[in-house]
Amino acid sequence: MDETTQEETVKKPRKGIYMLPNLVTLAALFGGFYAIVMAMNENFHMATIGVFCAMVLDSLDGRVARMTNTQSAFGEQMDSLSDMVSFGAAPALIAYEWGLRGLGRWGWIAAFVYCACAALRLARFNVNTAVVDKRFFQGLPSPAAAAIVMGFVWLINEWGMPGHSVSWLMFAFCLFSGLTMVTNLPFFSFKDVQMKKSVPFAAIVLLTLIIAVINIDPPSVLFTLFLVYGLSGYVVYFWRRSKGLQTSVISTSTDEPDEEGLHK
């Protein structure tokens, strides 16, 4: 038996998927699915909790993959599909069932615009990963957009007000969050924060204070924090423009001519 024949007889190892990070992603997907089911049962409080839990889990799966050296193309695609359900479809459907239904066609149009913008945002993120400045997101991240919409639902529910009483405010937040996702505005990604490096003692104290403040009134604080973050991209854009700095977060050129406008 020659060497070529021996190589052919050796079975190639079967490709599999990494269990741990994909389990976290599946848990995040379940959070979005659970939120939709709760909204169908008109339990909007638990629906908002489901989306926020999905946000926490979504922030962990990538870190788990990097810490365990189990990154994969499959995991990246799985994460995007999970995000589309948890931060695209779920918030849109919950917002419609909670406060937009009474607006008729305007209600479902606002919900669809949000859902479509989330899909466009995630697709653009996937294709621009290699060219975007890591310090910034290009457009509002879909979890933050979902937090604005769901935070508003949670806050109004805590105040004991029905969703139909603030239908047009819900309409406005859906359009704001959705359209901001597909802008070229720079939003801080906080990816340059190194968790493994030592930090000043004051940073730990500040983090403790933030957690304490959130616990005072979670709906109000979380909604305010994410709304401020949603507005921060506009502030950074106009500040950089006023200083004559580059406003685009695209750091290198791409091969697609349709993306040339992103560098302006």
How are the strands ordered across the major sheet? Answer: 1-2
* SSE string: HHHHHEHHEHH
Biggest pleated-sheet summary: 2 strands, antiparallel
- Helix and strand composition category: mainly alpha
Strand count: 2
Strand content: under 5%
Structural domain count: 1
Supply the CATH class.
Mainly Alpha
Mean pLDDT: 84
The CA-CA distance between the termini, in Å, is 63 Å
Shape: globular
CATH architecture: Up-down Bundle
How many H/I helices? 9
Helix share bin: 55-70%
CATH level-3 fold name: Four Helix Bundle (Hemerythrin (Met), subunit A)
* CATH-assigned homologous superfamily: CDP-alcohol phosphotransferase transmembrane (TM) domain
pLDDT under 50 segments (min length 5)?
Answer: 252-264
Radius of gyration equals: 21 Å
